Amino acid sequence: MLGTQNLSVFLLAAISLNLLPGANTLYIITRSIGQGRKAGIVSVLGISTGVLLHTTAAAFGLSAILATSAMFNTELTTAFRSLRLSNHSFPLPKKLEVKAK
Predict the structure, then answer these.
(1) Which residue has the higher pLDDT, 10 or 71?
(2) pTM over 0.90
């Protein structure tokens, strides 16, 4: 098992991969151009938070546990799919109007 002697290499790789242009950069640029500066900043904060959580989970070995646990992945995928299908089957109304009598 890898120890903390490889932590600096791991952090360097994680930072390098996040600085290289890719899908995240394209998403941020598209949101910034289409919806303005505030939407771009919110996108950056959201992506950065997700990357930080994912990198932390990978550093603690959670990614390896999830990758090897077929049952957990199947259950998680089924749960997300059920939520997605229920959301599409029963969409929330756009605007609720209450009429007084």
Answers:
(1) 10
(2) no
